[in-house]
Design brief:
heterotrimer, A alpha/beta (about 260), B mainly alpha (about 300), C mainly alpha (about 375), A: about 260 residues, alpha/beta, six-stranded mixed β-sheet, four-stranded antiparallel β-sheet, 10 helices, globular, B: about 300 residues, mainly alpha, 2 domains, two-stranded antiparallel sheet, 11 helices, 4 strands, about 5% strand
């Protein structure tokens, strides 16, 4: 290791996780700096989503460190990790379908809202004030993605098409103004055009929040090529290559891992 | 305490344990194939006992030998409950497959209430406890201060036999293999050409037949049945299944005997508080959930994030 | 939906419906002959079904939603009017008191089960804890009775706190069996405990507030008013409090946190929502409301006994929620009215009521799982 570069925003070392004897993550090391977009690729079952689940605290790691902003978060609760500034989307959309668009986004704003019993139940005037600020915040964020949705803030998510649901999911992850965003296969279940539109959205977010770091898991290599600065390739829970997309795509071991898979 | 009384308690505990185990095995089977909890299970047991009693009443004029009579009412109860179990699966459990798991719990809970109320309201004098005929030989072997009663010994042996038979069925028959395959991995089992619905129905049939068996056993042991008996047996059986780690048959049996042991020890340790035996039993259920909510044998991790 | 936002729905359809419903309830409560009652119930069901077929329910719902504050006051007025009509009738007033206390308990359960998704199959037990608390405290202490009612709720919440560790560590089926075990344990305990009166239970004196005895009949000018009127007003006040609390909870960040953890615990915790904390808040608040209602009910009845707080009664509370539409406060109240009034007025049904409700809930779960009055999407403030 060199000692010239400043410590990156996220520095994962030796991260290991087993499920019933199967190594899902094998001493994985990964870093992401402020403003950087890192792609995480690899065949199915190579540990990409497990990496997200361990770094966001859903699973406890068996070994390794997750240093974020200089603090080791390995083994911390999902709540603590979120409060530290990490937010995420899920591979299978996990919006609360019966709730409105606004409610779904507000779930992500938990750290920005005041949750005291007295404030919520008794001080309705103050609550209304905060509520109106939140509506504005949700509208402003949604506008970056799909201005049309801002008029439908209080409609249930249930009836919306997949692309809008993805957009709302990303808004939910962004409303807390995190320093690091995990995107777990944002293109899943969408057409090529929809994926393209969503990537435009993400690039626009990036342009506005230049310090936001993003780690993205994606199967569509076009997406990876277009938006990432750097990629890491996983196979059987190990990192087998790292570099820019072009470097990685030319790597023999990577091609072997993907043999038969799309690349 | 003298050895004879102790042996008496042990026998009592073993009988209780056998009944709990039979109920717990049912819960485990259902959970295995369908990942659902069928809360009406205890009430199916109760209906099974009443079915046996009804069969007895119907056959009372036939001058059958006690053994033949026992076989007849046992067969009636087991077959009727097997069919009822399948009907429940078909009409109430399978249609809710895609709904939240809580709905299955609620619907079977309500179904249990409906069964309980139906027996109370429509079985002749169903609201009162009913005497259950003593059909097993009353002989006993005197062993010092302890009487080994033949009926208890026979029931216990029959319980063990039924569990062994179930194990053999699951291990060595094609159908048993299909059930285990579905329990392992439903999707793969389907692609291998296993008729999923059929497997579910048969599993529910078998589990409910076991409950009927336990119900008859309960009647023979206490010489009395009542419409509310299934509730207690259901809750304890379910807790036993959880303690054993839902999905494992040996775990369920272990859990059943563990519960019976705790209850018996409780009765021995604080004999003056015998009125509190149910309070104690349910207290243990809550305590075990507090200490070891996922069971002593770990449940498979099912949630995929 | 967006189109409707422009013009506000008229108050008239809702007001007309409220007037008709009030008259209908008065007719039902006043009817004596079983045949009359049967015809009234039949007619009521037919009107609702027809209104549904002709698409009249939606505009009525919109009218109610658009003039919410006005209708809340009108509903209170309607209740007072009904009580005024039956001011001399002990039985009817007692029925209304029972209805309102059950509605409070159902609202408590709405917080737990409807919002936070914490199952509670021991609702009747917590109701019983409130009732037994009021019995023991009125007999053995000189505490003011309003304080005793408050303590009834607190005791129920504290008793529920004992169940929190297993409920928070588990979910779904496991939490369900914990509360079922508690319901059976509680019933068994009060039945065998001699201090609490065993199967016969305990008697308690009538309620007194600021020297006013609730068990005396009231004479106002030329009117003789049943002593139950005092309990009616107290229960109505409690119901208004409970409804206000539940509605404000729902329309706040707390209600949102509840929904988030009910619908997806994992996602909720990834956004910093403390799952255990909010489950605990919901469970304690809900049990407190149930305990308040139980404490008042003990004082109204003048005695408490184990047979009133069975597992079957707990299941009725859950049935009310499922029939009314889980999480819909008005749905819970309407369903409570149905569940309480129908068996009391139709004597033939009385014996079969547990079976009837069980079958109804099974049908609802199979064919209309969101209940008869599904919960609307949250609005934090009236538009």
């Amino acid at each position: 290791m060199t000692n010239v570069a400043p410590a990156p925003l996220l520095q994962v070392e030796g991260l290991t996780k087993t499920f019933g004897g199967v190594l899902a993550l094998d001493a994985l090391a990964l870093s992401a700096g402020s403003g950087e977009v890192v792609g995480l690729i690899g065949p199915n079952g190579s540990g990409k989503t497990t990496f997200f689940n361990v770094t966001t605290g859903i699973y406890k790691p068996d070994a390794g460190s997750i240093v974020f902003k200089g603090k080791n978060l390995a083994g911390a609760s999902p709540q603590t990790i979120h409060r530290a500034g990490i937010s995420r989307t899920f591979q299978r959309s996990r919006l609360s379908l019966p709730l409105s668009i606004f409610d779904n986004i507000m779930i992500g704003a938990h750290t920005r809202r005041f949750n005291g019993l007295v404030f919520n139940l008794v001080c309705r005037g103050a609550f209304k004030h905060e509520y109106e600020r939140m509506v504005e915040a949700a509208r402003a964020l949604l506008k970056v993605f799909e201005p049309e949705l801002t008029d439908r803030l209080f409609e249930p998510v249930m009836g919306l098409p997949m692309i809008d649901r993805r957009r709302i999911e990303i808004c939910r992850a962004l409303i807390s103004e995190p320093s690091l965003l995990f995107l777990d296969e944002p293109s899943a279940g969408m057409t090529h055009e929809e994926t393209h539109a969503l990537m435009d959205n993400i690039l626009r977010v990036r342009a506005v929040h230049s310090s936001l770091a993003i780690v993205i898991v994606e199967h569509q290599m076009g997406v990876i090529e277009r938006i990432t600065d750097r990629c890491a390739v996983l196979n059987f829970g190990r990192k087998i290559a790292e570099g820019t997309y072009r470097e990685v795509a030319g790597n023999a071991e990577v091609q072997e891992a993907y043999l038969g898979a799309e690349l | 305490m003298d050895a004879g009384l102790l042996a008496q308690h042990v026998m009592n505990g073993l009988m209780l344990g056998m009944m709990y185990s039979l109920v717990a095995v049912g819960f485990t089977l259902f959970f295995g194939v369908l990942d659902v909890i069928k809360f009406s299970h205890g009430d199916v047991l109760m209906v099974g006992a009443f079915a046996a009693l009804a069969a007895y009443t119907a056959l009372a004029g036939q001058a059958l030998s006690p053994w033949l009579m026992l076989l007849a009412i046992l067969a009636a109860a087991v077959v009727a409950m097997g069919l009822l179990g399948m009907a429940i699966a078909q009409a109430f459990v399978l249609p809710l497959r895609t709904a939240p798991a809580l709905n299955t719990l609620l619907i079977t809970l309500m179904l249990g209430t409906a069964l309980r109320e139906a027996v109370r309201l429509f079985y002749p004098q169903g609201a009162n406890p009913k005497p259950f005929p003593a059909l097993l030989p009353k002989a006993s072997i005197d062993m010092g201060q302890f009487n080994l009663r033949a009926d208890n010994a026979i029931m216990f042996a029959a319980g063990i036999l039924s569990i062994v038979a179930l194990q053999l069925f699951l291990k060595h028959t094609k159908l048993g293999l299909a059930i285990r395959a579905v329990a392992q991995d439903e999707e793969t089992a389907r692609t291998m050409g296993i008729n999923f619905t059929m497997v579910v129905l048969i599993t529910f049939g078998i589990g409910s037949a076991l409950a009927a068996f336990a119900g008859v056993m309960n009647g023979l042991y206490y010489n009395e049945i009542n419409f509310g008996m299934g509730l207690l047996l259901g809750v304890i059986g379910f807790s036993a299944a959880i303690v054993g780690g839902l999905g494992s048959i040996y775990g369920a049996i272990l859990g059943g005997f563990l519960f019976a042991a705790l209850q018996t020890i409780g009765a021995v340790a604080v004999p003056f508080a015998s009125a509190y035996k149910d309070v104690f039993a349910f207290g243990v259920v809550i305590l075990i959930m507090t200490i070891k909510p996922t069971g002593l044998i770990r449940e498979k991790i099912s949630e995929r994030v | 939906m967006a189109r409707e936002q422009g013009k506000r729905a008229s108050i008239l359809p809702g007001a007309a419906v409220l007037a008709v419903v009030t008259a209908y309830v008065i007719a039902i409560l006043g009817a004596d002959k079983q045949n009359t009652i049967l015809i009234l119930f039949g007619a009521g069901a037919a009107v609702v079904v027809l209104a549904g077929l002709f698409g009249l329910l939606k505009p009525i719902g919109r009218s109610f939603a658009a003039h919410e504050t006005a209708f809340n006051w009108l509903a209170i007025l309607a209740m007072l009017l009904i009580a005024g009509v039956f001011r001399e009738e002990h039985f009817v007033l007692l029925l209304l008191v029972t209805l309102m206390l059950y509605a409070v308990a159902a609202l408590g359960l709405t917080i737990q089960f409807g919002y936070a998704g914490v199952v509670n199959f021991a609702g009747a037990s917590f109701f019983g804890i409130g009732a037994y608390t009021s019995a023991v405290l009125t007999v053995h202490t000189a505490l003011p009775h309003l304080a005793i009612i408050f303590l009834g709720g607190v005791t129920a919440a504290l008793a529920g706190a004992i169940l929190l560790p297993p409920i928070l560590r588990t979910s779904g089926h496991y939490a369900a069996v914990v509360t079922i075990a508690f319901a059976l344990l509680f019933r068994s305990f009060i039945e065998v405990n001699d201090v609490l009166g065993g199967p016969q239970g305990l008697h308690l004196p009538g309620m007194q507030v600021f020297g006013w005895s609730f068990n005396d009949n009231i004479t106002v000018g030329r009117w003789d008013i049943s002593f139950y009127m005092s309990y009616f007003l107290l229960s109505l006040a409690l119901l208004i409090f409970a409804f206000g609390l539940v509605q404000r909870l729902e329309r706040s960040w707390i209600g949102l946190n509840f929904d988030a953890l009910r619908l997806d615990e994992t996602a909720a915790s990834c956004f910093g929502i403390g799952v255990a904390r909010w489950k605990a808040v919901a469970f304690l608040l809900g049990n407190m409301l149930i305990g308040f209602a139980g404490a008042v009910s003990g004082m109204v009845a003048g005695f408490v006994a184990p047979s009133n707080y069975t597992f079957a009664d707990s299941l009725i509370l859950v049935s009310i929620l499922l029939l009314g539409g889980i999480g819909n406060a008005w749905g819970a109240i309407v369903a409570t009215a149905f569940v309480v009034i129908v068996p009391e007025k139709l004597q033939t049904i009385q014996e079969y009521r547990f079976l009837l409700y069980a079958v109804m809930v099974i049908l609802v779960l199979l064919f209309q799982p969101e209940g008869l009055l599904p919960r609307p999407v949250r609005r934090y403030f009236q538009s």
